[in-house]
Amino acid sequence: MQETQPIRLTVPEPGARLRLDQFLARALPKFSRSRLQTLIRNKNVTLNGSPARPRELVHSGDQIEVNEPPPEKIDNLPEAIPLDVLYQDDDLIVINKPAGMVVHPGAGQPEHTLVNALLYHFPNLSGIGGKERPGIVHRLDKDTSGCLVVARTDEAHRSLSKQFADRAVEKIYLALVAGKLLKVAGTIEEKIGRHPVHRQRMSTTARNGRVAKTDYRVLSSSAETSLLECRLHSGRTHQIRVHLHHLGHPVLGDKVYGGRFAKSFPRQMLHAWRLAFHHPRTSEWKTFEAPVPRDFENAIKSLPPSPFSGPRA
Fold first, then answer.
1. Comparing 77 with 306, which gets the higher pLDDT?
2. Which of 90, 118, 131, 188 has CA atoms 20 to 30 A from the CA of 137?
3. CATH class, 85-165 region
4. Domain map (residue ranges) of the chain
5. What is the dihedral of CA 292, 298, 301, 303, to 10 degrees?
6. Could you confirm whether domain 7-66 is CATH 3.10.290.10?
7. From CA 230, how far away is CA 125, in angstroms rounded?
8. Fold of 170-276+288-301
9. Does 110 sit behind a cis peptide bond, omega within 30 degrees of 0 on the bond before it?
10. pLDDT tens across 142-185, in order?
11. Which pairing describes strands 185-189 and 202-203: parallel, antiparallel, or unpaired?
């Protein structure tokens, strides 16, 4: 596989005293912050000839070299699993992921994933995510349905990753939650981090939590259940589920955060309804909506008194 040419930079006076990762984010906007941090961690970035650390300060005249390794060869097996494709072109694909499907292979799920299905229908995907995650720019939980964008080229992958990192992507979810909320709309701003004891869970009480923001609006409700529209301003793991649990209105069917409401539905009632971003090649603002799944729609119908007519655009 052809090697990519190293990127060589000299730190100018205005860039002095910045952290290395901050300087690179400004100097190389085509890379997302997470991608740059990965390159640094993997010793693909040198500072004055030596492997660099992300928080290392740079000084005027310092020499930086960035060596991006070639994409890993994809060796997952394609599987003839049907896909609900909302949109496709030469740069990207937008999928309506069904609940119950894992996005990419891992220790507990080596096959039958979205990636295996993608490789069958779309053999040429971006290799930036490595052999386990070809084309995967972002993820949805196994039991969350809805819009998910996949990159077909490395250029599209870099652009989309940067938009997600810069919070320039519109992400709107529908959530069925326990109880009737006191306010018809609000904002939850609670840091989210790994639970100190239960490492598979996230928590708003974690010592090293990261800033997270979720707006919500009640679309319909009864005494027992509410349908919410949730807009994400960040992309923390399990963000909506953790924030709504913190609010005292967990997502129905959530086996991790739902408590006594975990068994109310076979899966967590969370749907990635709308996804919008700038097209990586044309810069056109593109908006996609995933139809509400049947199980979700049937649950909505049980909500008196106002009929569900779709989220407000």
1. 77
2. 188
3. alpha beta
4. 7-66, 85-165, 170-276+288-301
5. -100
6. yes
7. 30
8. Pseudouridine synthase (3.30.2350)
9. no
10. 999 999 999 999 999 999 999 998 999 999 999 999 999 999 99
11. unpaired
Sign of CA dihedral 128, 284, 212, 24: positive
pLDDT tens readout for residues 196-239: 777 678 999 887 888 999 999 999 998 899 999 999 999 899 99
CB of 49 within 8 A of CB of 63?
yes
Spell out the SS3 assignment of the chain: CCCCCCEEEECCHHHCCCEHHHHHHHHCCCCCHHHHHHHHHCCCEEECCEECCCCCECCCCCEEEECCCCCCCCCCCCCCCCCCEEEECCCEEEEEECCCCCCCCECCECCCCHHHHHHHHCCCCCCCCCCCCCCECCCCCCCCEEEEEEECCHHHHHHHHHHHHCCCCEEEEEEEEECCCCCCEEEEECCEEECCCCCCCEECCCCCCECCEEEEEEEEECCCEEEEEEEECCCCCCHHHHHHHHHCCCECCCCCCCHHHCCCCCCCCEEEEEEEEECCCCCCEEEEECCCCHHHHHHHHCCCCCCCCCCCC
- From the list 89, 115, 68, 121, the residue with the least C-alpha distance to 280 is 89
Residue 66 class from Cβ within 10 Å (0-12 exposed, 13-18 middle, 19+ buried)? buried
Residues constituting the chain? 313
Enzyme catalytic residues = 141
Do 170-276+288-301 and 7-66 fall under one CATH topology? no
